[in-house]
Task: structure prediction
Amino acid sequence: MLSSGVCRLGLTVVTEVLYYSVMIQQLINDQKFANIQKAQAGLTRLFADAEKTDSFYTVLKNDEPLGVLLPQRRWESLTEDLEAMSSPNYKKRIAAARRDKKRYTAEEVRKWLGNGK
Result:
């Protein structure tokens, strides 16, 4: 983080935290489901679809989750994010943002993220 309170993405600590929250929600929205028979019959096809649609599959057996099919690119991105979020520096920035009394409107956040209307 720069001394002005701006993080590597050009955002304040609070907006960076919000950015990651949005990314987590997007990850949840990208979830698809496949039963074990479909996965066994077309594993390559499921990986190709997940890569093409930037999604992942939860594989089910008798409507119970067995595991997750995740394209390599998505796995690498996820592990990078987890590594960043587990760093002591990142945790300190989160704690500082929570102590900060400054609040931002949704419109301000949209502008910072480049989604202003």
